[in-house]
Every structure is written in C-alpha cells, then in structure tokens.
Amino acid sequence: MTDLFPSHGGFRQLRSFQVAQQVYDGTTVFCNRFIDRRSRTHDQMVQAARSGVQNIAEGSLASATSKKTELKLTGVARASLGELLLDFEDYLRQHGLRHWHKDDPEAVRVRSDRSDKSDWSDWSDEFFANTMICLINQASYLLWKQMKRL
To answer: Which CATH number goes with the domain that contains 138?
Structure first.
C-alpha cells in the first residue's frame, strides 16, 4: 500500500536549514551587541533572519501536498536572507569597515569550517558581520540548489 502523501518535513537535516539557523542565531547576537535595540534596523535584521529559517521549515512541511508551495516558500527564505545580506553589507560600509572578498583567506576559512560558530563573545563587529555574510551566501547557494531540484 502506498502513502497518500509523499514523505515531507525533515527540514532539520537540510544543510540550508542548519546554516540559516546559524545565521538567525548569529544575527540576533550581532544586533544585540552592535545595533541599538530600539532601532527599526535591529528588528528588521532579526526578522529577516528568522524568516529565512521559518520559511525553509514551512516549505519542507508543505512539500507533501504542494511542491509549488514548497518552491515558493524556499524562494521567500532565500529572498529574506538576501535582504539580510544587504543589511550586513550596509553596516560594514556605513562604519568604514572592511568587506571580505569571496577569495580572501578569512572568507575561505569560514566557508570551509563546518563547526558550530556559536561562540561570538569576542568577535569584532567587522569579523562578525563578514562571517554572517559568508554564512548567508552559503545558505542562499544551498537554497538555490534546492529550488533547482524542485
């Protein structure tokens, strides 16, 4: 006997979800440390990061009944992370800080390191923002691959 609906969910095993979750956690810490909690930017950045994570989960859960919905929500997750990417780039530019290029040794190191990046206690704002940019780009690439597969 076959199931009425195909299997779905499993978003916690998706690398895109795991990286997006690191981005959400890191963005929350970054904003609490470096951006006034009462500012609209603080709220928007945290909400964009949250939206990335939540839409990956929601799209995965919807996959049993609608691949179209899954694709749409995966796209929304990617767009939310794209908005967040611009916020981190703006932060670096507005504070006169260095923005790592894709091939800079620091960026390469962040991309190749799969360890948990949750000890943010002694990170400078420049290092922190650049690390978040690397992780956002990584999550966005993984989501793009998922969308192509869908």
So the answer is: 1.20.1440.60
